[in-house]
Queue: 2 jobs
Job 1
Amino acid sequence: MTKVSMTVNGKAVSGDVEGRTLLVQFLREGLGLTGTHVGCDTSQCGACVVHVNGESVKACTIFALGCEGAEVRTIEGMANADGSLGVIQAAFQEHHGLQCGFCTPGMVMSAADLLSRNQNPTERDVREWLEGNICRCTGYHNIVKSIMAAAATLRGEQVAAE
Amino acid sequence: MPKDHGIGASSKRREDVRFLTGKGQYTDDINRPGQAFCYFLRSNVAHGTITSLDVSAARDAKGVVGVFTSKDLEGLGGIPCGWEVTDKDGAPMKEPKHPILAEGKVRHVGDPIVAIIADSLAAGRDAAELVELEIDELPAVVDMREAIKGGTVLHDVAPDNICYDWEFVAENKAAVDEAIRNAHHVTTLELVNNRLVPNAMEPRAAVGEYDAGRDEYTLWTTSQNPHVIRLLMGAFVLSIPEHKLRVVAPDVGGGFGSKIYHYAEEAFITWVSKRVGRPVKWNADRSEAFMSDAHGRDHVTKVELAMDQEGNFLALRSSTLANMGAYLSTFAPCIPTWLHGTLLAGNYKTPLIFTNVKAVFTNTVPVDAYRGAGRPEATYQLERTIDKAAREMGIDPVELRRRNFVKPDQYPYQTPVAVIYDTGNYDATLDKALELADVRGFAERKADSAARGKLRGLGIANYIEACGIAPSSLVGALGARAGLYEAATVRVNPTGNVSVFTGSHSHGQGHETTFAQVVADMLGCEEANVDIVHGDTSRIPFGMGTYGSRSLAVGGSAIVKSVEKIITKAKKIAAHLLEASEADITFANGQFTVAGTDKAIDWGSVALTAYVPHKYPIDDVEPGLEETSFYDPANFTYPAGTYVCEVEVDPDTGVVEVQSFVAADDFGNVVNPMIVEGQVHGGLAQGIGQAILEGCSYDENGQLLSASYMDYAMPRAADLPMFVVDHSCNTPCTHNPLGVKGCGEAGAIGSPPAIVNAVIDALSAHGVTHIDMPLTPRRVWEAIRAARN
Ligand code: FES
Ligand code: FES
């Protein structure tokens, strides 16, 4: 066991992990942050996406020890300070961008990274960006809509609801 | 002006908040103090005899709590099947034992053999390496056409690997044969309905806990129907009485059918938690899910459609081989029979129909219902065959369909395949879909594609499905071992807010929102004052769960029944408070009024009086405001619609791109349009996935080749277009109180034939008449090449 320390959602945390412990295991089992999900074992589904030092990363593909000293953000850290839904989260609710909710944390985290890189994505851009996020429920239609709407809100535009 | 409240409003989903903030509680999020972990060692061969099995080294390994094989499970039952189908000669189907852990033989890759309980999953996995297991490999049979020859036999009870040989409608056989013999034209098509893996994004999981002090078990499990699991597992497998067994299906990350069934793993986890005296958790990884979740579809069918000179359908004959896999899953036998044969009339007035279905055991994962279940297979046959017939007869495919539609003045319509359609209007959805798809502009778009070297095709499919399973008297006669009622308790609490306990289960469908809309509408209160409780046998009286698009039609109707009883009782209490006669009390907008006066009392006062009254007429009206109802539907519901799509095929690479997709559905009344449209989107993605991407594949030795997301092509965002979805042409269901029909499966039923018809339309100039799904670039490219040569 080795001690690992990092900042998760703004809080300093540490724990003892094995060399083989994945970041997603550390978050879920070590810290009880079960919002980050595991949907596959081949790094394809994206249910586990979190941010490490500001970029989206599949938490099932990196070791906890590899995140020593890192800034990690998970779905639990995406709401506004007053607890209300952040812009992307709110857009997902407004546009019905989730059904069972299992892929949702990864979708939101992935979308946040896209929108920090590209403030004005086209529908194609959004669809291509989601290459690594699988949803079995929504057919992506409303996920794409939610992300486009969140982008518009972040640019300061008004978008009509569904 | 769209409604902003109650029935008909696109109320935003309340469940979203917890899912969007990471506060959902899925089974794998549940951790019990002192919990151990289970790892299943599974067969890596498709068929074989276990010649030696020594687990002693694993037992002694570090961190191991216990190691179990079938020998340790003596006295426990096998995993039961819930539906019996009768052979054409009257004999019951062959029903081999489905053991929890393999007994002497393994029959598919993924068959569990040893279960290891350890302090950590890693320790369990490590210990599995120490199990000494020898399997004498037997030849495997994967192809159903080979299996029925009986060379390799899975189960002694079925020497030809046939589970049943079923005929429907048997009395029609001779007349159908004769009509086909004498017809002006017969269109014949052989097709494969490809095997799919449901792939809910949340893998199956279970946590079992035994409370020795109370002799009580709790199982948290990824289920669409916790009461059914309690019933089957308690009574048939573990012999645990229901009052000592609580089954909880908390937040569940999608099901699509795969989480209906009772699985060996959850039974084992429940049993072993007592045996090891610790809570035990099992969570499937994705590869394990691929080789242990029930698969879907997998039919091989030959269809013949007889027509007169004008293209009027005279008779339909089909024969199908349906894969059961290695064992019978819970509902498996009914899918290719009663959920398939009864839908072969489709939207058409074909007077004579006969089908023969042979269900076949093979060395593959068990096959059961997957979104649509039987109805996609029926629809695919019909709509592909009709398209081919139209080409052969030189009749426009739209016109041929229209000519044969059951017409709006023909309801109730008795089909020749047992079911009676209560209502519908197929011309309306057809017209709507053609309009929304701008079919008139197709020629121009086709020319534009051609200018870019692409082949453009237009595809149309109609569908009808039977939902709201099921009228208990009907399904009882058809072999269901249980009636499929739904139950609901509605409790008005003393301060007037409402708790609804429903036997339906939500795993993405948004029941917590939709059901609250219904109740709020009936009671004239805020939706926020209504809470929907589901998924826990200790809180809900009973339930048959969610599948077959039954939740609103059956579960919702049970809720309506209970709310009606509540209102009746509340009126009595209001009459007492208002000192009026009960007959004079009217209830509207949450107020009780004495007719013709201005005397009124609000809901809250009545609710409070129901619980903590003074001077109450207790002999006449029982205090409390809680009612339970069971709803048994009078008939199935029959959602129907038309799907129109356009594809572009690259003849050089065989790549198919879906350019547009229009769905015009008749779901009857709609409670929450936003949620209904979302259900259609999801169904379409799965259907389009089936048509062009997804195919579960085994090699001839029974090795599962597609066991991860690297080999099994799940639809990604970039594979799909934005959908155009319409539900304005609706004919309300005539026999349930909400007039609703169900919308969960439609998208997956109507879309595969629409896509394949479009691709064949694009390729017809090249002489291609059929390609089996999935229409991968390779298959399409090869078909073009073959037709050219
Ligand atoms: S769990 Fe599937 S990509 Fe990480
Ligand atoms: S909402 Fe269920 S997997 Fe995306």
Job 2
Amino acid sequence: MSDGLALNWRRIPERYAMKGNHCTNCKQDYFPSRMICPNCRRKGHLVSKDMPRIGKIVSYTKVMVGPSGFENEGNYYLALIDLGSGAKVLSQIVDSDEQDIHIGASVKKMFRKIGEVEEKGAITYGYKFKVVKPLTEDQVEALKEKNKK
Amino acid sequence: MSEKQKAGIVAYGVYIPRLRITVEEIARVWEKDGKHVSAGLGLKEKAVGASDEDSATIAVEASRRAIEDFGITAQKIGAIYVGSESHPYAVKPTATIVSDALQAGPEVMAADLEFACKAGTAGVQMCLGLVKSKMIEYGLSIGADTAQGKPGDALEFTAASGGAAIIIGDKENEIIATIDHTCSYTTDTPDFWRRQHAEYPEHGGRFTGEPAYFRHVIGATKLMFKQTNTKAEDYDYVVFHQPNGKFPVQAANMLGIEFKKIEQGLITPYIGNTYSGSSMIGLCSVLDVVKPGQRILVTSYGSGAGSDSFSLTVTENAGKRKADVPVREMVNEKSYIDYALYVKHRGKINRG
Ligand SMILES: [Zn+2]
């Protein structure tokens, strides 16, 4: 119990903000964080980086019988999501119509409960993704502008 | 309050869960006349948080929208207050979860507030004081709830999930609407409560109307008129707490406020009563459409009981500082569930 508690607590930056890292040498992003860049080895230089909120579905699957802890979920979709700059993440898809879940669909990171082990235990929060309309060019520009600030 | 030191709303964000259940579907289960209930309450459906949503996840999503849509640097937020009557923990602050999710901390004041449906506006008052006294740069106040009604109880038709986040600041080029004045009206009135280990709240039935909602909403609003030397005609938009679709319309009538002034902020008919989120979501919907120079009056209500009233003036920034998705568009993103899925999502099934 207390071991799990400490482990979950240490993973808060990863789960809440999708904090990974970025190699300034080869420009590759890593999520979760790596200790060394596998491309550059000793030449690599890793800095902390929050992964972007928007990604694209690379592949997906419908889970019919979930693993322990997901018994209440019924059918749900799991997708491999490309976050750009090389990082990919496997995540549950929520709040999306079945026909909108496809390869290439734009998805956005949402903050959700990812497990409530027992009624009296600590609640774990983290990321799940939902399908969103692809950004228009104007929105991409506006986003870049905001990120500059 | 000092007239020289201006402060006000610099950013806002709303989050409404996607799931909806209709009043008719709830009425079907309890063998009531759904059309009659729906007409009596002035609402057709309510928003339902999914099983992996709670007041913390709603608070985070609403805050992220405020920060992202308005380009606020989270680290510059000096205080975070989360108002809710459905905090996920009895002891452990929701504000800590929000702070870490936004990466606003650890150098940040944070606390949870509870005052039934007006805890979020109480947080706005606190942030306003801290910003005006220059103790913080930005203050974030959130009203978020996953309100629960006892199965079969009248409240079950209206108790909904949703929330709004409002960021207070004092930079002239950022303020969308200055908060010119705020006042409150508070009494000990037991119209609605939930004891420590009770699952669902209790309420005083008809007692919730006249001595509770109307007395405080009218009381705080009249106090605002008196203290600011204004009258109903001076305001372009008015938002009242909306436990259903009818009470705010009646309150407006009593105060001689035309319906067209409250229409833009009247969101409960589409999503139900989001408790702490209710009047704040209404205000955000008004901020979506306001023009420079217009004046807004907001009066919240929390059982127990009290009302917070705010008088705001829209600035020149209103045209360029708007949320990416207006509230009235957001309410249309929905997916209907039946009563069985509803009780599963809201954890009302007792599995022993
Ligand atoms: Zn590298």
